[in-house]
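Whiteboard transcription, Tuesday session. T.W. wrote the structure tokens on the left side:
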């Protein structure tokens, strides 16, 4: 069960310790957008470990500078991209800019399974 929140540039789905983003068509994800999502995520999860899944169902661009801010979120324990298109190739480059576990999947179910495993491992470490 997910709770849905709409921002002007995306839809965010939150469940337990996983957040799934669906960025709107044609958006250029920049630092301003990233800060809005980070603020939302910290309001929802606080210090609780969580995984962010970018479900790339629309075409949009990402400024890799956003990953410097994303990397600073201590409670973020994993980042996944779901895509079957060119966005998957772009994510290969984006992966270089994030200092967190980062995986690319072709199906949302695969990404959520991975997210749950990362979270399960995080709990074992505590």
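and on the right, the sequence the group agreed on:
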């Amino acid at each position: 069960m997910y709770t849905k929140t709409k921002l002007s540039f995306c839809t965010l789905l939150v469940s337990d310790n996983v957040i799934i983003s669906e960025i709107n068509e044609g958006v250029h994800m920049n630092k301003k957008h990233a800060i809005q999502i980070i603020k939302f995520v910290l309001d929802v999860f606080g210090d609780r470990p969580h995984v962010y899944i970018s479900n790339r169902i629309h075409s949009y661009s990402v400024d890799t500078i956003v990953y410097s801010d994303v990397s600073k979120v201590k409670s973020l324990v994993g980042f996944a991209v779901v895509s079957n298109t060119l966005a998957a190739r772009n994510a290969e480059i984006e992966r270089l800019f994030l200092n967190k576990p980062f995986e690319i999947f072709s199906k949302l179910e695969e990404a959520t399974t991975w997210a749950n495993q990362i979270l399960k491992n995080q709990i074992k470490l505590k």
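Someone added at the bottom: The two ends are 26 Å apart (CA to CA).
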